[in-house]
Write a structure and sequence with these properties.
Helix content is 53%, strand content 16%. By secondary structure, the protein is an alpha+beta fold. A five-stranded antiparallel sheet has the order 2-3-1-4-5. The protein folds into two domains: 3-129, Ribosomal protein L10, N-terminal RNA-binding domain (Alpha-Beta Plaits, 2-Layer Sandwich), CATH 3.30.70; 133-172, no CATH class. The relative contact order is 0.14. It contains seven helices and five strands.
């Protein structure tokens, strides 16, 4: 690979790092070809992009990025695969699911919405992170709950005021 090719690769990777909200670094070194293919296929199905990168190229791209990746530099040793996703918990769930059949991939570190997580011991916590869509759904459910109670009270009482008051009184008692 020529110097110009490396510079182009660093620029492209920097651009990707700048626009991606979730970046996982994993070790998939001992996976055989079939397992690696299965991991890539499963990643594609979940909207996760997986690529094996050279540590030096990744470090230079991280340095050139607008984001602060300082906490992840120590994990850039050995074989490194990068997993890019829009959802913060999708790569963690994929890794956990894939590890039911294999010891790899091992989580080296993650950068999620400006937070850095280092080490495989964070995998369970990262799977519990809710995506933006899940959080919006929880808020909507909480907002709908009082309205549903009033509507059900109106419907169960047959729609008259006396029945409504009686139903509300019974619920508060």
């Amino acid at each position: 690979m020529t110097r110009e090719d490396k510079l182009t690769q660093i620029e492209e990777l920097t651009a990707v790092l700048n626009i991606t909200p979730t970046i996982y670094l994993a070790d998939i070194e001992s996976l055989d070809a079939v397992s690696t293919s299965n991991l890539r296929r499963a990643s594609f199905g979940k909207g996760i992009k997986v690529a094996v990168v050279k540590n030096t190229v990744l470090k230079r791209a991280m340095d050139a990025s607008e984001k602060n990746f300082d906490g992840l530099y120590d994990v850039l040793k050995g074989n490194t695969s990068i997993m890019l996703s829009e959802a913060g918990n999708a790569p963690a769930k994929l890794i956990k699911e894939f590890r039911k059949k294999s010891k790899k991939p091992v989580l080296k570190g993650a950068w999620i919405e400006e937070s850095v997580y280092v080490g495989d011991e964070n995998l369970d916590m990262l799977t519990a992170i809710k995506s933006k869509e899940e959080l919006i759904g929880d808020v909507i459910t909480l907002l709908q709950s009082p309205a549903k109670n009033v509507i059900s009270a109106l419907q169960s009482a047959g729609g008259n005021i006396a029945g409504l008051l009686k139903t509300l009184e019974e619920r508060n008692a």
